């Protein structure tokens, strides 16, 4: 049975980080979800690493950085999947160590999907 991780969502609602459209990048660990929305993002951009793989670099605001870290850290040892609009960016990544970051890189299997993730996280697309 799928459940939603309520504490970060409550924190996000209280701080105005949840979009009414609920569009964003979904982090899923053991049937618990965390939706990263554009209200959480200070900026995002599609980039390529030296191997020419696409990824989205995302800088988070302080509230959402802590909330996402709390979610990931509370599920250490679980398997993380990341998706946008139902399409997988990453699957079955083990959560190891402690997450503390104000920015992150979200790997993508192709540039089109990286662009879609960047679009849903971009403040420009909501105006």
Task: Give an account of the 3D structure.
The chain is globular. It has one domain (3-126): Gyrase A, domain 2 (2-Layer Sandwich), CATH 3.30.1360.200. The strands form 2 sheets. A 5-stranded mixed β-sheet has the order 1-3-2-6-7. It has a 3-stranded antiparallel β-sheet with strand order 4-5-8. Mean pLDDT is 83; it is low at 1-20. 27% of the residues lie in helices and 38% in strands. It is an alpha+beta fold and 127 residues long.
CATH topology: Gyrase A, domain 2
How many helices? The count is 3
> What is the number of strand segments?
8
Mean pLDDT: 83
Attribute tags:
3 helices; Gyrase A, domain 2; 38% strand; disordered N terminus
List the helices and strands and how they pair.
Elements: E1 3-4, H1 6-15, E2 24-29, E3 32-37, E4 41-48, E5 54-60, H2 62-74, E6 79-84, E7 87-94, E8 103-107, H3 111-121
Parallel strand pairs: 1-3
Antiparallel strand pairs: 2-3, 2-6, 4-5, 5-8, 6-7
């Amino acid at each position: 049975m799928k459940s939603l991780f309520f504490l970060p969502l409550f924190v996000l609602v209280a701080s105005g980080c949840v979009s009414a459209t609920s569009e964003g990048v979904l982090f899923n660990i053991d049937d618990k979800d965390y939706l990263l929305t554009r209200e959480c993002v200070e900026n995002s951009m599609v980039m390529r690493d030296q191997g020419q793989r696409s990824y989205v670099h995302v800088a988070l605001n302080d509230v959402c950085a802590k909330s996402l870290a709390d979610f990931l850290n509370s599920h250490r040892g679980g398997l993380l999947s990341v998706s946008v609009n139902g399409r997988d960016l990453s699957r079955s990544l083990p959560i190891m160590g402690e997450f503390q970051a104000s920015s992150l890189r979200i790997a993508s299997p192709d540039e089109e999907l990286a662009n879609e993730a960047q679009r849903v996280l971009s403040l420009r697309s909501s105006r």
